[in-house]
Amino acid sequence: MAENRAYIIARFWSKVRVERPTECWPWTGGHGDKGHGRFKIAGKLVSAHVFAYEYFFGQIPDMPGYHGAVVRHRCDNPPCCNPAHLLAGTQASNVADMVARGRSIGQRSSLSPETIATVAAAAGTLAEIAALHGATIDQVKWYRSERYRQQCRPPAPPIARETPDREADHESAPPVVPQSQGRLL
Predict the structure, then answer these.
(1) Are 130 and 140 in contact (CB under 8 A)?
(2) 77 lies in a domain?
(3) Do residues 89 and 140 share a domain?
(4) What's the pLDDT score for residue 65?
(5) Assessment of whether the complete model's pTM goes beyond 0.90
(6) Which residues of 29-61 are buried (b: 16+ CB within 10 A; e: fewer)?
(7) pLDDT surpasses 90 at 55
(8) Beta strand residue intervals within the chain, DSSP E
């Protein structure tokens, strides 16, 4: 028996954390390997962001090109289901976005060596690690890959050394807090 439309819609939105209109609305259900939400309808997996797009805007329009139409994220956050962050386009426009936003393979060096080492060793989902370290999911996948470890392993970050105590009449310098080199998701 086919699932009731109202039930499907209610089940879908129960897995989306709706925030302010300008913020991302993350999918809290299951995710695919690239961080996009996955939602099952009548036994078929659909992408959560595509479902959200079609809920608000109707069917994705036909587009020319090898892959046809795709739903792109203005926010570069794969779990996001906020319709204000979604737009239809071609795979070519999606790739152009990736290059323009610094997410292509040749642009992966936006993270510091310390952040790369932390990302490579971090536990959690790709999306969680990316959000925590200001990286993209593609960067997390790359820096955790065997190919990266074999070909591109950066030198180990320098070890922080303790300095001798300063005299009481001198102020200590404030601690240096590293700044994120990537963008926040």
Answers:
(1) yes
(2) yes
(3) no
(4) 64
(5) no
(6) eebeeebbbebeeeeeeebbbbbbbbeeeeeee
(7) yes
(8) 38-41, 44-47, 69-73, 86-90
